Amino acid sequence: MNFHILTLFPDMILQGLSTSIIGRACKAGQVMIEAVNIRDFTQNKHKKVDDYPYGGGAGMLMQAQPVYDAYLSVLEKIRTKQRPRVIYLTPQGQVFRQTMAREMAKEQDIILLCGHYEGIDERVLEEIVTDYISVGDYVLTGGELPAMILVDAISRMVPGVLSNEESSERESFEQGLLEYPQYTRPEEWRGKRVPEVLLSGHHKNIESWRMEESLKRTRIRRPDLYKAYLEESKSETGL
Question: Is the distance from CB of 80 to CB of 109 less than 8 angstroms?
Fold first, then answer.
């Protein structure tokens, strides 16, 4: 899987994604991450990529030309007949979900566009963007952190990236529920003991306990997810 990230801060992207699971996946060739510096494509001799917005207002706006030319440079590399998926990271987009990560992991190439300042000239967005994605209802300085979030979440869904396939299947949100509590050694810490069922070796009882805990945790911490899970369960059983 190939990620092409259009950004003003390529070092931030590459340094942030060079370690842990994603770093190992890149070294193994399972994932490729390219940070394309938008400034390299400006026609301004001072490497300027922004200007004042028409109609006035606070802040500056990224210009269409360098963004579009950076995009064209990626197209020349991937040489695909199909229009690639171009995701613009913006608070105005659809909120990113685990189901979206799983679906996007099927793509061969994804282009992620990171905005800055007050945003990007609308004309280039209309020209190249296929998806508008938000990582939450808050405003960040730029799109680099959201882009890294998407790369991390999507990469975990790529076959072979995780050493234990079961770990991705049992994580939070995979069944529409939050993950159950987990414990490791020692059996007792500060007077708190590991639940006896987890020490029993009885796999059926353990699975039952984990499901109950997932339901309980989701009901308390994310009632919206719990409600959706119940509604989906009812529709599947025809009740």
Answer: yes
What CA–CA distance (Å, rounded) separates 63 from 48?
9
pLDDT digits (tens, 9 = 90+) for 107-155: 999 999 999 989 999 999 999 999 999 999 999 999 999 999 999 999 9
Residue 51 region by backbone torsions, left for phi larger than 0, else alpha for psi between -120 and 50, else beta: beta
Could you give the CA distance from residue 79 to residue 54 in angstroms, rounded to a whole number?
A: 35
CB 30 within 8 A of CB 161: yes
CA–CA separation, 98 vs 103, rounded Å?
9
CA distance 239 to 230: 11
Query: CA torsion sign, 52 to 94 to 78 to 168?
Result: positive
Q: What's the confidence (pLDDT) of residue 166?
A: 45
Overall residue count recorded for the chain in this entry: 239
DSSP state for residue 163 in the 8-state scheme: S
Find out whether 16 and 26 touch, Cβ atoms under 8 Å. Answer: no
* Identity at 173, one-letter amino acid code: F
pLDDT at residue 168 in the model: 63
CA angle 222–156–78, rounded 5-degree value? 130
Calculate the average pLDDT of the chain: 93
Distance CA 16, CA 22 (A): 10
The residue among 117, 143, 128, 140 whose CA lies nearest residue 52 is 117
Placement of tokens 């990113």 in the chain? 96
**CA–CA separation, 203 vs 212, rounded Å?**
14
Contact 153, 101 (CB under 8 A): yes
